[in-house]
Amino acid sequence: TLNLTANSEKRPSDENDEPRLSKRPRLSCSQSLDPTTTTTTPAIHTSWIPPSKQTVINLQSQSSSLFQFILSLVHIILTSSDSYLTDEHCGWLHTTVNH
Fold this sequence. Notes:
Residues 1-45 are annotated as: Disordered. The chain has helices at 4-9, 53-62, 66-80, 87-98. The protein has 99 residues and is mainly α.
């Protein structure tokens, strides 16, 4: 008889099994993971802390329009926590906000 269970448990190596660096969630666009680490998940789990009420009030008083206020607030949020964005999305957002 053939032993099919031993062969069916071992999958051939597939390029889709490899983690893709450009698609891995980042801790932050300005931070990078330690390249010496072999795990595919970030070693440090950070939680997002929203801007303080004082920061929002200061932004509001310094902004000459609602659009400028919202853009400044979005910029603060993006730079403080973009842990679920890929490198590509993160780069696009920062480029868009900074122009």
